[in-house]
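User: I'm writing a short methods note and want a consistent example. For PRC-barrel domain containing protein, I'll paste the sequence; you return only the structure tokens, no commentary, since I'll be parsing the reply automatically.
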Amino acid sequence: MDHSTHTPLNSTEYTNAILADAPVYGPEDEKIGTISHLHGIGRAKEVVIDVGGFLGIGAKPVLLSLDQLRLMRDGSGIVHGVTSWTKDQIKDLPEHHD
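Assistant:
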């Protein structure tokens, strides 16, 4: 997928309503997880990403800061994130507990 043609989200779109369930892709364009929800406000927002599991069962929630993701819409308007983290690096992060 060529993310260079996608439209970046602006900070007013960083809401649970827009980002929940958005897929997150790694550097090799592999899907590494799905955004569960956001924590914090303003520039201190963090994103909880569910990684692993199957159909949401057995997924591990991990926490990334927003500056570790590029959030955008593709040509069809579908929101997704891209990170430089690999799936293995994300899986190695500590599990996040709400």
